[in-house]
Amino acid sequence: MAQHFLLSAAARTLSLTGIYRAGEDAAYETFCRLRWPETDGEAVCPDCGCCESYKITTRRKFKCKACHRQYSVTSGTIFASRKLAFMDVLAAIFLFVNGAKGKSAVQMSRELDVQYKTAWVLCHKMREAMQDEYETAKVSGDVEVDGAYFGGHIRPANKAEDRIDRRRLRYQTGTRRVVVAIRARKGRTLTFVTKTEAQGVDIVARRVMPGSIIFADEARHWDHLARGYAMGRIDHSEAYSLNGAHTNGAESFFSRLRKMVAGQHHFVSPKYLHQYANHCAWLEDHRRMDNGSLVRRVVRNAMAAPVSREFAGYWQR
User: Fold this and answer.
1) How many Cβ atoms sit within 10 Å of the Cβ of residue 105?
2) For residues 35-57, average pLDDT
3) Coil, strand or helix: which one is 168?
């Protein structure tokens, strides 16, 4: 029997000890090479694009010879104004992508010996960089669509006479959301957060290419997609898979997302649920890549992402 890729040595091309043995200079050079690959790590001014700069080695900064602006390798990126050493940021990215079911901010703060607030913002910035891969992505071919509810749990009262009917609208918390997953069987997974699963119909119509075959369950709102796509429907009260029609790929994704939310984070705000869903989709779509490539991919995304509008100076409001 062939060995599973994730159990092989080919899946482990980077280690935490390797990052710290290489040192701060090697981590800094990694960021430079991935920020400016066209010049093999030589600095390029983010303002005027000039390739000639003075090196301010004492602060790891550059001064452009054309516009005289001072900048660093993370200037204008999602890691702008960072205070952590490059080695620690690289280690944080390594820990983040190595977690098969995600990484909680509490774990990150303990492993990096930083404040919880620092770890929380750092994790969300990495999720934001991951999310950029899916910003305008579309899928085609055999595509599965489904939705799953997250959050909004109402804890039952201790005494039976004090318990309420938690199904009634007036007792709802308003924090329950639906994650709509669009998963190509031979492609990537796109996720969207809505209040009802029916709101995912228009999203599917925008993100699935014409000529694709859409597989969905028996929910009636998916009937509208039959106007523009060939459909394969499966009634889960009869079978989970029948004649090639199933949504097992989407269900598998939801299983991993639930384990991530319940097992790692325990609570996810509906405001940021879309980031956790995208994080889980990113891990799912790149599960066959070695961890060294995953780290470089996140660093490359972070160096291309602009300063975060939401998480830059988050705790200072």
Assistant:
1) 20
2) 93
3) coil
User: How far is 314 from 316, CA to CA, in rounded Å?
Assistant: 5
Distance CA(43)–CA(64), nearest Å, equals 9
Spatial separation of the C-alpha atoms in residues 264 and 267, rounded to whole Å: 9
Q: Over 80: is that where the pLDDT of 317 sits? A: no
pLDDT digits (tens, 9 = 90+) for 77-127: 999 989 999 999 999 999 999 998 999 999 999 999 999 999 999 999 999
- Give me the amino acid identity at 247: T
Instruction: Return the structure tokens found at 10.
Output: 């080919």
Max Cα–Cα distance, the chain, nearest Å: 76
The three-point CA angle 300-303-307 to 5° equals 145
Amino acid sitting at position 143? V
The CA distance from 157 to 219, in Å, is: 32
For residues 190 and 278, give the distance between their C-alpha atoms in angstroms, rounded to a whole number: 7
Which domains are present in the chain?
5-133+291-316 (no CATH), 134-285 (3.30.420)
Give the angle subtended at the CA of 173 by the CAs of 169 and 174, to the nearest 5°. 80
